[in-house]
Amino acid sequence: MANRTMTAGEWGLLIALSLLWGGSFLFNGILVRELPTLTIVSARVALAALALWTVVRLSGHAIPRSREVWLAFLGMGVLNNIIPFSLIVWGQTHIASGLASILNATTPLFAVIAAHLLTPDEKMTRGRLAGVVVGFLGVALMIGPSVLSDLGSNLLAQLAVLGGAVSYSIAGIFGRRFRRMGLPPLLPAAGQVTASAVLMLPVALIVDKPWTLAMPSMEAWAALFGLAFLATALAYVIFFRILATAGATNLMLVTFLIPVSAILLGALVLGEVLAPKHFAGMALIAVGL
């Protein structure tokens, strides 16, 4: 089922998802200057949960009651939210966002391997593996080789971001079960962030004591709302929609498109100039895709 060419609609959703997640590195970069990691992650998933359950009620979907479904939500929340969000946000406090983007772009490499080992219908092919490698090289070229000068320093932070990429790839495979359960994409999106919030909020309260922190700036509040409502709530509805029809390996291609989206948004919104390396990198990513 999943080893097939994606439709134009699925490509459109993948591009939309890359635009939403492309902003998350920017939002995180703003937030880590004012808030600790656990507070950022717990606030992100809690606000996203409130937004998604509001939409669930308005859309008339029944809230799942099955123990099996909620255990699956819990597993998805740990693999797709708690582990990668915490590792990547913490990693970004020690390494540049460009290097973090490159390390995050290894997700499809891990997804190809994990899907080959763990699924019956998303097996590795030479073309698929070659495409992933070419796409990764495109990301590295587009962000620029100078960022690799930091490779080797802050090793723990780099390993943390890689750990987040591994967790994302496994989460994509784990989430395939929601289609078999007959759940519309909105419900797994709401369920996983709810489970994440239930686990993360007590930890953040105990460790960070957020009531003792200085009041965040308006810029930080705007970044938090963007992170929660756009890069999490809306993004995960699209995430589960793509996963249900195109499979985990195709879905993870979004990590190649995230840097493209970030750079194009910078050019369109902030007036940043695109260099030849950006166009060369995008061309390689297009070939890889």
How would you describe what is shown here?
It is a single chain. The protein has 289 residues and is mainly alpha-helical. The chain is 76% helix and 0% strand. The protein has 13 helices and no strands. It has helices spanning 8-31, 37-59, 67-92, 97-104, 107-118, 126-143, 155-174, 177-180, 186-207, 218-246, 248-251, 254-269, 276-288. Helix 3 (67-92) runs antiparallel to helix 7, helix 4 runs antiparallel to helix 6 (126-143) and helix 6 (126-143) packs parallel to helix 12. The longest helix has 29 residues, at 218-246. The model has no long low-confidence stretch (mean pLDDT 86).
Shape: globular
SS-based class = mainly alpha
* Helix and strand pattern: HHHHHHHHHHHHH
Distance between the termini: 19 Å
Instruction: Return the average pLDDT rounded to an integer.
Output: 86
Supply Rg: 18 Å
Number of strands: 0
Topology:
Elements: H1 8-31, H2 37-59, H3 67-92, H4 97-104, H5 107-118, H6 126-143, H7 155-174, H8 177-180, H9 186-207, H10 218-246, H11 248-251, H12 254-269, H13 276-288
Helix pairs in contact: 1-10, 1-12, 2-3, 2-9, 2-10, 3-7, 3-9, 4-6, 4-7, 5-7, 6-12, 6-13, 9-10
Which key terms come to mind for this protein?
mainly alpha; 13 helices; 0% strand
What's a quick, concise take on this entry?
By secondary structure, the protein is mainly alpha-helical. The protein has helices spanning 8-31, 37-59, 67-92, 97-104, 107-118, 126-143, 155-174, 177-180, 186-207, 218-246, 248-251, 254-269, 276-288. The chain is globular and about 50 Å long.
